[in-house]
Design goal:
Elements: H1 16-24, H2 29-53, H3 62-77, H4 88-105, H5 110-122, E1 143-144, E2 150-151
Helix pairs in contact: 1-2, 1-3, 2-4, 3-4
Length: 156
């Protein structure tokens, strides 16, 4: 799926845009449209914020982050119930949010995760469907159920 893929996540030919475009070509048309608009509308801004304003526990590559997001989406989207049609965009958006949050957040300490969530919630151009959170919880305490609803059951 990813041409030039090596285990050390070293990519010299492909940038994030071409990597997501290549990945999206292998997805069904309805997913391509929805996910492309989500990647285009938020991924680079989120990546820039993480790189410029947050410190991670370890070094990471933006291409590894995009690959991890796509890999998580592959697994999450494979759970698709073909009877679902009406709320698919919301489901794609919530799965996208879950995948990129964990792709970025896996290497972030708890306080940096909170800053990432705050950035997303307060950003005037990145309008993503984040779950409403209970007191003392963050978006990292939530998952997306198969039908696209937010749930904290997995982490409760």
């Amino acid at each position: 799926m990813f041409a030039g893929d090596v285990h050390e996540c070293v990519y010299t030919v492909y940038n994030c845009v071409s990597m997501t475009q290549g990945w999206l070509k292998h997805r069904p048309n309805d997913e391509q449209r929805s996910l492309k608009s989500l990647f285009d509308g938020s991924f680079s801004s989120l990546l820039r914020f993480v790189e410029q304003h947050l410190s991670s526990k370890d070094d990471y590559s933006e291409l590894c982050t995009i690959r991890q997001t796509c890999t998580l989406l592959d697994g999450l989207l494979s759970l698709r119930d073909d009877r679902q049609t009406t709320a698919e965009y919301n489901r794609y958006e919530r799965l996208y949010v879950f995948a990129f949050l964990w792709s970025f957040g896996v290497l972030l300490p708890v306080d940096a995760r909170a800053k990432l969530e705050e950035f997303i919630r307060n950003h005037d151009k990145i309008l993503l469907d984040l779950p409403p959170v209970a007191a003392n919880a963050t978006v990292f305490d939530y998952m997306v159920k198969n039908k696209g609803e937010h749930s904290s059951a997995l982490f409760a």
